[in-house]
Amino acid sequence: xxxxxxxxxxxxxxxxxxxxxxxxxxxxxxxxxxxxxxxxxxxxxxxxxxxxxxxxxxxxxxxxxxxxxxxxxxxxxxxxxxxxxxxxxxxxxxxxxxxxxxxxxxxxxxxxxxxxxxxxxxxxxxxxxxxxxxxxxxxxxxxxxxxxxxxxxxxxxxxxxxxxxxxxxxxxxxxxxxxxxxxxxxxxxxxxxxxxxxxxxxxxxxxxxxxxxxxxxxxxxxxxxxxxxxxxxxxxxxxxxxxxxxxxxxxxxxxxxxxxxxxxxxxxxxxxxxxxxxxxxxxxxxxxxxxxxxxxxxxxxxxxxxxxxxxxxxxxxxxxxxxxxxxxxxxxxxxxxxxxxxxxxxx
Length: 347
Description:
Number of strands: 10
CATH class of the largest domain: Alpha Beta
CATH superfamily of the largest domain: GAF domain
Number of helices: 13
Largest sheet: 5 strands, antiparallel
Order of helices and strands: HHHEEHHHEEEEHHHEHHHEEEH
Radius of gyration: 27 Å
Strand order of the largest sheet: 7-3-10-9-8
Number of domains: 3
CATH topology of the largest domain: Beta-Lactamase
Shape: elongated
CATH architecture of the largest domain: 2-Layer Sandwich
């Protein structure tokens, strides 16, 4: 939909004022803006045209106007299309500590995003199906048991304990670690063929049974597609916004955040969006979960390394500050890039 510059300026002014106040915006409020040198009467005529276009509505007689989903959609599409240099979120508010486990980092990130944006947040754990093996670490345990730590791209860790019925010497464990890592490091499941497996088993000598158990565990770790865990934070922020806190709306949204079953549907997004710079905005009825039809949801794909990806989502009212949310998500993804590049360089 094409709007002339004045109609667009008035629509954007209504959206920005409504974002801040949550109250319908009248023509007198708009006429006071320095960049609009037009009378309230002219603004009322333009607002009538915008209302006829379905971009704003008058919630009740004698009230000002508020944006419709269609009006927000035009605003957001222009925002994303312009590719402006959006202001970065303050780094002191969004500093992520280095942590050894991805799960701790994601929980920390969900809390920081909720605190910074004052909306509810949701983050999926990374999807590692089909990713590559980083390394294997075998370690002895008591009573004839062996611990195999399998580390995948993205620092995804899988621990397995095997009952091997014997105690291996440090030298034997070292040789098995070297054998497995020299042959398997950097490979995905499809690259671990019968030739490689046969060679490892042949070189393992009397420990072929142990190697077979470890290879089975590696296959399970790399090839099993698990449903990603969803981390949430900031559910109470919903009560900050009167349009979401009344009636059953807030309880339904919070219930969805707590139960988490439908959140993966919200975060999955349209097919084919895998680039970590894809940011999607869903407004009102576009949100694929019934309890969130009064909300807007902004999602993005983060990438740890080598295709190991997950999703970030921010949930708020339709009048959310889209510019700040998009800037905050971009800033967070850049910090994740820095953290994981640093960790990879230190390993």
